[in-house]
Structure formats: structure tokens, C-alpha cells
Amino acid sequence: MKTVALTKETKQGILDNLLKRSPNNYSGYEDTVNEIIANVKAKGDQALFDYTLKFDKFTLNAENIKVTRTEIDEAYTKLEPGLTEVIRKAAENIRAFHAKQLRTSWFDAKEDGTILGMKITAIGRAGVYVPGGKAAYPSSLLMNVIPARVAGVSEIVMVTPPGADGHINPGTLVAADIAGVDTIYRVGGAQAIAALAFGTESIPKADKITGPGNIFVALAKKAVYGYVGIDSIAGPSEILVLADETANPRYVAADLLSQAEHDELASAILITTSKELAEKVSAQVEEFTARLERKEIIRKSLDNYGHILIAETMEDGIEAANEIASEHLEILTADPFQTMTKIRNAGAVFLGEYASEPLGDYFAGPNHILPTNGTAKFFSPLNVDDFMKKTSIISYSREALEKVHKDIEAFAESEGLTAHANSIKVRFQ
To answer: Whole-model pTM?
Structure first.
């Protein structure tokens, strides 16, 4: 990892470097994705069958596109019972956390006959994308499905790419069953997103699509936005550790590497006021990396997007953390709760030396589908609200409208919308 002093110039250089990983820079693949989407819209299931054979080497058809109950039951037998129980525990923690986010409809009635309110309803059908193969993450499945189920979504359908033998990762199937997925389809890639967006003979159209995927999936979600809702366009994983001299260098190094192992584009940054800590963390990173399974990925990630920044003051470090707006922010300072009060921008904040980032990835309960590439400045983690719609409710009595009708007419006429004004006037002529 590169160790440099935190200055205005180094901070800007890092920000510019991180933004190069943004999905907005994937334009070179857009033509391919748009062609896939157009084919699925035009040919429906047949396009799904053709693309699955081409990309996944599996012969898909109308009879085997849907995962059966028997396959799900068999998945339980292939998974260690202990892991199944861990998935159940994690699911319950996630369910309990998201249940606290639920909001109910409200109405405010006044004596003059004015009634204003907000009707809150769940979306009808959610479509969840789940990566397959080596990138199978049952934990992300739980994070996408459970908030939708808590919100009261009527139907949750899932798409995930099959292996060449047609099989789906057993951990994925078990997690889907525990989380409450209604139907699972063995199809992946941009073609699966198109199917959820427009519907085919086998796969129903969804109202909203969530879930992470590769570049093609990300671009497909971006392309269909507007026809359906989406959660976000996820970028590579990120972690920023904000630490002072009290931090344990072994913990800091281990936590940085927990994100660097995701892929070569992952970012791991330490900002500290302690030069001694920086040196110890750097040495510890080398020691850990040498014996970790994904050492080659880690090294490429750290070479390109790994940084140790030495700040003159903690205030400087906090300012830089707010500018970077990292997906994951760990605070390892003498008083992490006090430091946290000054943080404005982060996807998730982990406080203290025993709140390691993987705790949030797998078990604690808060959602790990988080804003990346600085979007934590204006986006939130995936939550129950993402699966709900708000409808404004307005009712006025004649008495209530009579008090304000001239004001409304004047406002409408000032905008040149005389039909708007007339719609009010006729009620008092």
C-alpha cells in the first residue's frame, strides 16, 4: 500500500482515481447490453434460451427454466446443517433490523374538512438478481429479499445463472427458501434483467429490480431504469478505516484486506494521525497477504486502489472521509462514537475494534447493499422503503376550498395555466 501525507492534492488524486472505477465508465459494453435487451423484448423466452446456451453452456427450455421444490429440498442436503443454521440466524437478524424501518399510512384531518395524508403500500412484484458460479453470495440474497418481504411485497421472483450442468449453488437455493423467494428462474446476465423488466412467456415483469451483478448486469439495470425501478448501479467494494494511535494494527490490516480480496477494483484506504500505526499496518498487510488465498487479487487491488494517508489532525481525516464517502467506514479511535457524530457521508459506519466490516456483511442485520463510488453523499443503503410506494391523499370540503380558491386561481394564472384556474373557479360560480 502507498503511504503518503494527507494533503488537498493527495486527497483529490485519490478521489479522481476512485471515480475511474465508476459504472458510469462502462460505456464500452453498452451496445452489447442494448442488443441483448432488444432481443429479449422481441423474442422473449427464446432469447433467454439462446443466451443461456451461449454464455452459460446450458440448454435452457420452458420445462427447466424454473427451479423446482425438489431441487430446493436437495440443496438442504448438500449444505452443512451448521451453515443452514447460520443462514437462518443471519436472516432473523436482518428481518428484525428491517422491521424497525416499517412506516404506516397517515392522515391529518382538520375541522374545516381538509384531509391530507400519505398512503403507503408495497410494490406488487420484486425481481431479485443473484450472481452465480464463483460469485455466489447467499448473504446478498438475504439482504435483497428480506427487506422486500418485510415491506409486504406480494411476490418476489429471483433470477440466477445456472452452471453448465444447470445446477444452482445450494447455498443460494437454501438462502432463497429461508428468505421467502416465491419463484426462482435459472437465467442470468443482462438477459435476465431484460426478462424482469419486460416479461417473457416464463418470467413475469417485475415492478422493481434489485441485486448486484457483473458489468453487463449493472448496465442492463441502468438501461431498463424507467421501465422498472432499480436499487442502484453498484460499483466495486470499498473500505475506509479512520484510526488514531489507539488502534490495533493487526485489526486494521485484516479489515482493509477483507474488502481488497473482493476484486482487483476494490478500494482499501487507511486514514490515520499516527505515523507509527501507518508503518505497523503496512507491515501487517504484507504479512497477512502472503498467506491469504486470494493474494493475487489483493495485491492488484492494493497496488491500484490501496492507500495509507497520514493526516496532521483527526479533523483533517474526518474531512477527507466525508469527501471520499466510502461504502464501508470503520472508526477505530479512542472515542469512536464522538468521531461518528462528525461523519456525514458513508454507506455504513462500524464503531470500535470489535465491529469489523464482515460483521455487517453477514450477520448484524443492517443491509450490506450500500452506495459506492462517493454516492453515499446522496444515496442510502437498501431498505424497506425501497420496496414501498407513497401516494399522496388530498380531500377538501367546499368550506376549506372556498377560503383559498382565489389564491390557487392567481397562482395558476401567473403560470399561464388558465384551465387549471378554471377548474377551481367553476366550483364557485
So the answer is: 0.93
